[in-house]
Protein backbone atom coordinates (compact mmCIF):
# COMPACT_ATOMS: atom_id res chain seq x y z
CA UNK A 1 0.00 0.00 0.00
CA UNK A 2 2.79 2.37 0.93
CA UNK A 3 4.54 1.62 -2.33
CA UNK A 4 1.35 2.31 -4.32
CA UNK A 5 0.76 5.59 -2.48
CA UNK A 6 4.33 6.65 -3.21
CA UNK A 7 3.93 5.90 -6.90
CA UNK A 8 0.70 7.92 -7.01
CA UNK A 9 2.36 10.83 -5.21
CA UNK A 10 5.29 10.75 -7.64
CA UNK A 11 2.92 10.55 -10.62
CA UNK A 12 0.84 13.44 -9.25
CA UNK A 13 3.96 15.54 -8.74
CA UNK A 14 5.19 14.73 -12.25
CA UNK A 15 1.82 15.64 -13.76
CA UNK A 16 1.79 18.93 -11.83
CA UNK A 17 5.27 19.79 -13.12
CA UNK A 18 4.28 18.91 -16.69
CA UNK A 19 1.21 21.13 -16.36
CA UNK A 20 3.31 24.00 -15.02
CA UNK A 21 5.79 23.54 -17.87
CA UNK A 22 2.94 23.62 -20.39
CA UNK A 23 1.70 26.91 -18.96
CA UNK A 24 5.23 28.36 -19.04
CA UNK A 25 5.52 27.35 -22.70
CA UNK A 26 2.27 29.22 -23.40
CA UNK A 27 3.55 32.33 -21.60
CA UNK A 28 6.90 32.32 -23.41
CA UNK A 29 5.21 31.97 -26.80
CA UNK A 30 2.74 34.77 -26.09
CA UNK A 31 5.51 37.04 -24.86
CA UNK A 32 7.92 36.43 -27.74
CA UNK A 33 5.79 35.76 -30.82
CA UNK A 34 3.47 38.18 -32.62
CA UNK A 35 0.76 35.57 -32.06
CA UNK A 36 0.14 31.81 -31.95
CA UNK A 37 -2.09 30.51 -34.74
CA UNK A 38 -4.14 27.34 -34.76
CA UNK A 39 -2.92 26.55 -38.27
CA UNK A 40 0.82 26.81 -37.53
CA UNK A 41 0.97 25.53 -33.94
CA UNK A 42 -2.30 23.79 -33.00
CA UNK A 43 -0.93 22.12 -29.83
CA UNK A 44 0.21 25.42 -28.35
CA UNK A 45 -2.90 27.25 -29.52
CA UNK A 46 -5.19 24.77 -27.77
CA UNK A 47 -2.97 24.80 -24.67
CA UNK A 48 -3.50 28.56 -24.47
CA UNK A 49 -7.25 28.07 -24.90
CA UNK A 50 -7.28 25.41 -22.18
CA UNK A 51 -5.57 27.73 -19.68
CA UNK A 52 -7.03 30.95 -21.05
CA UNK A 53 -8.59 32.29 -17.87
CA UNK A 54 -5.52 31.66 -15.72
CA UNK A 55 -3.14 33.16 -18.29
CA UNK A 56 -5.45 36.12 -18.96
CA UNK A 57 -5.86 36.93 -15.27
CA UNK A 58 -2.11 36.82 -14.51
CA UNK A 59 -1.15 38.93 -17.53
CA UNK A 60 -3.80 41.54 -16.84
CA UNK A 61 -3.18 41.68 -13.08
CA UNK A 62 0.60 41.91 -13.25
CA UNK A 63 1.28 43.75 -16.54
CA UNK A 64 -2.01 45.07 -17.88
CA UNK A 65 -1.52 43.06 -21.09
CA UNK A 66 -4.82 41.98 -22.69
CA UNK A 67 -4.86 38.39 -23.97
CA UNK A 68 -6.88 37.97 -27.16
CA UNK A 69 -8.01 34.51 -28.29
CA UNK A 70 -10.07 34.00 -31.45
CA UNK A 71 -11.09 30.92 -33.40
CA UNK A 72 -7.81 31.03 -35.32
CA UNK A 73 -5.15 32.65 -33.12
CA UNK A 74 -4.03 33.78 -29.66
CA UNK A 75 -2.27 37.12 -29.20
CA UNK A 76 -0.87 39.07 -26.29
CA UNK A 77 -1.21 42.83 -26.77
CA UNK A 78 2.20 44.00 -25.57
CA UNK A 79 2.80 47.68 -24.85
CA UNK A 80 6.35 48.69 -23.85
CA UNK A 81 6.90 51.35 -21.21
CA UNK A 82 9.83 52.60 -23.27
CA UNK A 83 10.31 52.04 -26.98
CA UNK A 84 13.76 50.99 -28.19
CA UNK A 85 15.13 50.72 -31.74
CA UNK A 86 15.50 46.93 -31.43
CA UNK A 87 11.76 46.63 -30.91
CA UNK A 88 11.19 47.51 -34.57
CA UNK A 89 11.32 45.24 -37.61
CA UNK A 90 14.91 44.29 -38.37
CA UNK A 91 14.05 43.98 -42.07
CA UNK A 92 13.01 47.63 -42.37
CA UNK A 93 15.61 50.14 -43.49
CA UNK A 94 13.72 53.39 -43.92
CA UNK A 95 10.99 55.27 -42.08
CA UNK A 96 8.89 54.93 -45.22
CA UNK A 97 8.86 51.12 -44.70
CA UNK A 98 6.78 51.63 -41.55
CA UNK A 99 4.58 54.20 -43.28
CA UNK A 100 3.76 51.83 -46.14
CA UNK A 101 3.32 48.94 -43.69
CA UNK A 102 0.75 50.96 -41.73
CA UNK A 103 -1.13 52.02 -44.85
CA UNK A 104 -1.05 48.41 -46.01
CA UNK A 105 -2.86 47.47 -42.79
CA UNK A 106 -5.34 50.27 -43.42
CA UNK A 107 -6.11 48.77 -46.84
CA UNK A 108 -6.45 45.23 -45.46
CA UNK A 109 -8.88 46.28 -42.72
CA UNK A 110 -11.36 47.05 -45.47
CA UNK A 111 -11.12 43.47 -46.73
CA UNK A 112 -12.80 40.34 -45.44
CA UNK A 113 -11.17 36.98 -44.88
CA UNK A 114 -9.96 35.29 -48.08
CA UNK A 115 -10.67 38.37 -50.22
CA UNK A 116 -8.33 38.39 -53.21
CA UNK A 117 -6.86 41.51 -54.80
CA UNK A 118 -4.06 42.58 -57.11
CA UNK A 119 -0.88 44.27 -55.97
CA UNK A 120 -1.74 47.13 -58.32
CA UNK A 121 -4.98 47.63 -56.36
CA UNK A 122 -3.37 47.97 -52.95
CA UNK A 123 -0.51 50.23 -54.07
CA UNK A 124 -2.86 52.54 -55.97
CA UNK A 125 -5.27 52.93 -53.04
CA UNK A 126 -2.38 53.43 -50.62
CA UNK A 127 -0.93 56.10 -52.91
CA UNK A 128 -4.24 57.98 -53.12
CA UNK A 129 -4.81 57.79 -49.36
CA UNK A 130 -1.29 59.04 -48.63
CA UNK A 131 -1.56 61.87 -51.11
CA UNK A 132 -4.78 62.94 -49.41
CA UNK A 133 -2.84 63.10 -46.14
CA UNK A 134 -0.04 65.16 -47.71
CA UNK A 135 2.42 62.24 -47.92
CA UNK A 136 4.38 61.21 -50.98
CA UNK A 137 4.08 57.81 -52.64
CA UNK A 138 5.41 57.74 -56.19
CA UNK A 139 5.57 54.22 -57.64
CA UNK A 140 7.63 55.51 -60.55
CA UNK A 141 10.36 56.01 -57.95
CA UNK A 142 12.40 52.79 -57.62
CA UNK A 143 13.21 53.42 -53.94
CA UNK A 144 9.55 53.96 -53.09
CA UNK A 145 8.73 50.62 -54.73
CA UNK A 146 11.54 48.93 -52.81
CA UNK A 147 10.21 50.35 -49.57
CA UNK A 148 6.65 49.25 -50.31
CA UNK A 149 7.95 45.81 -51.31
CA UNK A 150 9.65 45.45 -47.91
CA UNK A 151 6.39 46.39 -46.21
CA UNK A 152 4.40 43.84 -48.24
CA UNK A 153 7.02 41.16 -47.61
CA UNK A 154 6.76 41.77 -43.86
CA UNK A 155 2.98 41.50 -44.04
CA UNK A 156 3.41 38.16 -45.78
CA UNK A 157 5.97 36.88 -43.27
CA UNK A 158 3.58 37.75 -40.42
CA UNK A 159 0.84 35.75 -42.11
CA UNK A 160 -1.33 38.83 -42.58
CA UNK A 161 -1.12 38.60 -46.35
CA UNK A 162 -1.05 35.46 -48.52
CA UNK A 163 0.66 35.37 -51.90
CA UNK A 164 -1.49 33.56 -54.45
CA UNK A 165 0.52 34.29 -57.59
CA UNK A 166 3.75 36.28 -57.95
CA UNK A 167 5.20 38.57 -55.31
CA UNK A 168 6.27 42.15 -54.68
CA UNK A 169 9.95 41.65 -55.51
CA UNK A 170 9.21 41.51 -59.26
CA UNK A 171 7.09 44.67 -59.01
CA UNK A 172 9.90 46.46 -57.16
CA UNK A 173 12.15 45.82 -60.15
CA UNK A 174 9.50 46.52 -62.77
CA UNK A 175 6.43 48.64 -61.97
CA UNK A 176 4.52 46.94 -64.83
CA UNK A 177 4.62 43.57 -63.05
CA UNK A 178 1.74 42.47 -60.86
CA UNK A 179 0.84 39.90 -58.21
CA UNK A 180 -2.26 38.37 -56.67
CA UNK A 181 -2.79 38.37 -52.89
CA UNK A 182 -5.32 37.04 -50.43
CA UNK A 183 -6.33 38.64 -47.13
CA UNK A 184 -5.75 36.77 -43.87
CA UNK A 185 -8.10 36.96 -40.85
CA UNK A 186 -5.10 38.18 -38.81
CA UNK A 187 -4.99 41.58 -40.55
CA UNK A 188 -7.13 43.42 -38.00
CA UNK A 189 -5.09 42.15 -35.04
CA UNK A 190 -1.65 43.48 -35.97
CA UNK A 191 -2.07 46.87 -34.31
CA UNK A 192 -2.64 46.77 -30.57
CA UNK A 193 -5.87 48.01 -29.09
CA UNK A 194 -5.66 51.49 -27.58
CA UNK A 195 -7.47 52.40 -24.37
CA UNK A 196 -8.69 55.72 -25.79
CA UNK A 197 -9.60 57.34 -29.08
CA UNK A 198 -6.39 58.18 -30.96
CA UNK A 199 -7.87 61.48 -32.13
CA UNK A 200 -7.88 62.63 -28.49
CA UNK A 201 -4.10 62.12 -28.16
CA UNK A 202 -1.52 64.75 -29.05
CA UNK A 203 1.70 63.13 -27.72
CA UNK A 204 3.22 59.64 -27.83
CA UNK A 205 3.24 59.54 -24.03
CA UNK A 206 -0.55 59.43 -24.08
CA UNK A 207 -0.39 56.09 -25.92
CA UNK A 208 1.87 54.29 -23.43
CA UNK A 209 -0.81 52.92 -21.11
CA UNK A 210 -2.05 49.47 -22.17
CA UNK A 211 -5.40 49.92 -20.40
CA UNK A 212 -7.30 52.86 -18.83
CA UNK A 213 -6.48 53.54 -15.17
CA UNK A 214 -8.75 55.15 -12.61
CA UNK A 215 -7.51 58.44 -11.19
CA UNK A 216 -7.51 56.98 -7.67
CA UNK A 217 -4.86 55.60 -5.34
CA UNK A 218 -5.74 52.05 -6.37
CA UNK A 219 -5.62 53.02 -10.04
CA UNK A 220 -2.18 54.59 -9.69
CA UNK A 221 -0.91 51.60 -7.69
CA UNK A 222 -2.05 49.33 -10.51
CA UNK A 223 -0.33 51.55 -13.09
CA UNK A 224 2.92 51.38 -11.10
CA UNK A 225 2.77 47.58 -10.80
CA UNK A 226 2.05 47.24 -14.50
CA UNK A 227 4.95 49.56 -15.42
CA UNK A 228 7.40 47.50 -13.38
CA UNK A 229 6.30 44.13 -14.74
CA UNK A 230 6.08 45.41 -18.32
CA UNK A 231 9.68 46.60 -18.21
CA UNK A 232 10.93 43.39 -16.62
CA UNK A 233 9.05 41.29 -19.18
CA UNK A 234 10.00 43.25 -22.31
CA UNK A 235 13.46 44.72 -21.61
CA UNK A 236 16.63 42.61 -21.34
CA UNK A 237 17.82 44.36 -18.18
CA UNK A 238 16.68 47.25 -15.97
CA UNK A 239 19.14 48.54 -13.38
CA UNK A 240 18.22 50.58 -10.31
CA UNK A 241 19.38 53.82 -11.91
CA UNK A 242 16.98 53.26 -14.84
CA UNK A 243 13.86 53.21 -12.64
CA UNK A 244 12.21 56.39 -11.49
CA UNK A 245 12.01 56.76 -7.70
CA UNK A 246 8.43 55.54 -7.40
CA UNK A 247 8.99 52.39 -9.45
CA UNK A 248 12.33 51.66 -7.77
CA UNK A 249 10.67 51.71 -4.35
CA UNK A 250 8.15 49.17 -5.63
CA UNK A 251 10.94 46.93 -6.98
CA UNK A 252 12.86 47.09 -3.70
CA UNK A 253 9.85 46.40 -1.48
CA UNK A 254 8.30 43.75 -3.72
CA UNK A 255 11.45 42.06 -5.02
CA UNK A 256 10.74 38.70 -3.37
CA UNK A 257 7.19 38.59 -4.74
CA UNK A 258 8.44 39.66 -8.21
CA UNK A 259 11.15 36.99 -8.22
CA UNK A 260 8.67 34.31 -7.13
CA UNK A 261 6.07 35.34 -9.73
CA UNK A 262 8.48 35.41 -12.68
CA UNK A 263 10.15 32.16 -11.63
CA UNK A 264 6.82 30.36 -11.31
CA UNK A 265 5.31 31.82 -14.46
CA UNK A 266 8.33 31.88 -16.81
CA UNK A 267 10.95 29.75 -15.08
CA UNK A 268 13.34 32.70 -14.87
CA UNK A 269 15.95 32.89 -12.12
CA UNK A 270 15.96 36.26 -10.35
CA UNK A 271 18.81 37.67 -8.29
CA UNK A 272 19.26 40.93 -6.45
CA UNK A 273 22.67 42.48 -7.19
CA UNK A 274 24.20 45.80 -6.26
CA UNK A 275 23.24 47.27 -9.64
CA UNK A 276 19.68 46.00 -9.61
CA UNK A 277 17.22 43.13 -9.84
CA UNK A 278 18.29 40.88 -12.72
CA UNK A 279 16.65 37.84 -14.32
CA UNK A 280 18.31 35.01 -16.21
CA UNK A 281 16.92 32.22 -18.36
CA UNK A 282 18.20 28.93 -16.89
CA UNK A 283 18.29 27.12 -20.25
CA UNK A 284 20.60 27.77 -23.19
CA UNK A 285 17.68 28.13 -25.59
CA UNK A 286 14.25 29.67 -25.38
CA UNK A 287 11.41 31.29 -27.32
CA UNK A 288 13.11 34.67 -27.05
CA UNK A 289 16.62 35.61 -28.11
CA UNK A 290 19.03 35.23 -25.22
CA UNK A 291 22.27 36.99 -24.37
CA UNK A 292 24.92 36.08 -25.28
CA UNK A 293 23.61 35.46 -28.77
CA UNK A 294 25.27 33.32 -31.41
CA UNK A 295 26.46 36.43 -33.26
CA UNK A 296 30.03 37.63 -33.38
CA UNK A 297 28.92 40.85 -31.69
CA UNK A 298 28.19 38.92 -28.48
CA UNK A 299 31.67 37.36 -28.63
CA UNK A 300 33.16 40.83 -28.86
CA UNK A 301 31.01 42.04 -25.95
CA UNK A 302 32.09 39.17 -23.70
CA UNK A 303 35.75 39.61 -24.61
CA UNK A 304 35.44 43.36 -24.02
CA UNK A 305 33.99 42.65 -20.57
CA UNK A 306 37.10 40.66 -19.66
CA UNK A 307 39.44 43.30 -21.06
CA UNK A 308 37.67 46.11 -19.18
CA UNK A 309 37.84 44.12 -15.95
CA UNK A 310 41.56 43.54 -16.54
CA UNK A 311 42.26 47.23 -17.13
CA UNK A 312 40.28 48.22 -14.02
CA UNK A 313 42.33 45.78 -11.92
CA UNK A 314 45.61 47.03 -13.36
CA UNK A 315 44.72 50.71 -13.13
CA UNK A 316 44.77 51.06 -16.90
CA UNK A 317 43.12 54.47 -16.98
CA UNK A 318 39.52 53.26 -16.65
CA UNK A 319 37.48 53.86 -13.51
CA UNK A 320 34.00 53.10 -12.20
CA UNK A 321 31.47 55.91 -11.78
CA UNK A 322 29.47 56.25 -8.55
CA UNK A 323 26.51 54.47 -10.19
CA UNK A 324 28.71 51.56 -11.30
CA UNK A 325 28.97 52.48 -14.97
CA UNK A 326 32.25 52.80 -16.85
CA UNK A 327 32.67 55.67 -19.28
CA UNK A 328 34.54 54.87 -22.49
CA UNK A 329 35.38 57.13 -25.38
CA UNK A 330 35.21 55.78 -28.90
CA UNK A 331 39.00 55.84 -29.01
CA UNK A 332 39.24 53.76 -25.81
CA UNK A 333 36.82 51.14 -27.15
CA UNK A 334 38.70 51.07 -30.44
CA UNK A 335 41.92 50.44 -28.50
CA UNK A 336 40.25 47.57 -26.65
CA UNK A 337 39.09 46.08 -29.95
CA UNK A 338 42.55 46.48 -31.45
CA UNK A 339 44.10 44.57 -28.54
CA UNK A 340 41.50 41.84 -28.72
CA UNK A 341 41.93 41.51 -32.47
CA UNK A 342 45.71 41.27 -32.14
CA UNK A 343 45.41 38.69 -29.38
CA UNK A 344 42.57 36.50 -30.64
CA UNK A 345 42.28 36.97 -34.41
CA UNK A 346 43.23 33.35 -35.08
CA UNK A 347 39.91 32.39 -33.49
CA UNK A 348 37.88 34.95 -35.44
CA UNK A 349 36.06 34.79 -38.73
CA UNK A 350 37.62 36.30 -41.83
CA UNK A 351 35.20 39.25 -41.61
CA UNK A 352 36.22 40.13 -38.06
CA UNK A 353 39.92 39.61 -38.75
CA UNK A 354 39.78 42.07 -41.62
CA UNK A 355 37.56 44.65 -39.89
CA UNK A 356 39.08 47.91 -38.68
CA UNK A 357 39.09 48.55 -34.95
CA UNK A 358 36.61 51.40 -35.51
CA UNK A 359 34.13 48.99 -37.12
CA UNK A 360 34.57 46.43 -34.34
CA UNK A 361 34.05 49.10 -31.67
CA UNK A 362 30.86 50.33 -33.36
CA UNK A 363 29.55 46.76 -33.66
CA UNK A 364 30.31 45.99 -30.02
CA UNK A 365 28.86 49.20 -28.57
CA UNK A 366 25.66 48.99 -30.63
CA UNK A 367 25.20 45.39 -29.51
CA UNK A 368 25.66 46.35 -25.86
CA UNK A 369 23.14 49.18 -26.27
CA UNK A 370 20.56 46.81 -27.80
CA UNK A 371 20.84 44.50 -24.81
CA UNK A 372 20.70 47.23 -22.18
CA UNK A 373 24.33 46.59 -21.26
CA UNK A 374 25.47 50.04 -22.29
CA UNK A 375 24.19 53.33 -23.66
CA UNK A 376 25.42 56.23 -25.71
CA UNK A 377 25.99 59.26 -23.49
CA UNK A 378 26.99 61.37 -26.49
CA UNK A 379 28.35 60.85 -29.98
CA UNK A 380 31.83 60.27 -28.56
CA UNK A 381 31.08 58.79 -25.13
CA UNK A 382 29.65 55.38 -24.20
CA UNK A 383 28.56 54.18 -20.75
CA UNK A 384 29.14 50.48 -20.04
CA UNK A 385 26.55 49.05 -17.63
CA UNK A 386 27.83 47.36 -14.45
CA UNK A 387 25.69 44.38 -15.49
CA UNK A 388 28.26 43.54 -18.17
CA UNK A 389 30.65 42.76 -15.33
CA UNK A 390 28.57 39.65 -14.64
CA UNK A 391 30.15 38.08 -17.74
CA UNK A 392 33.68 37.27 -18.77
CA UNK A 393 35.12 35.29 -21.65
CA UNK A 394 38.38 34.05 -23.04
CA UNK A 395 39.45 31.43 -25.56
CA UNK A 396 40.74 28.16 -24.15
CA UNK A 397 44.51 27.77 -24.53
CA UNK A 398 44.87 31.35 -25.76
CA UNK A 399 47.82 33.42 -24.62
CA UNK A 400 46.08 35.94 -22.34
CA UNK A 401 49.24 37.93 -21.75
CA UNK A 402 50.14 38.30 -25.42
UniProtKB/TrEMBL annotation:
- Any matching Pfam family: DUF2398
| Superkingdom of origin organism | Bacteria
Protein's UniProt name: TIGR02678 family protein
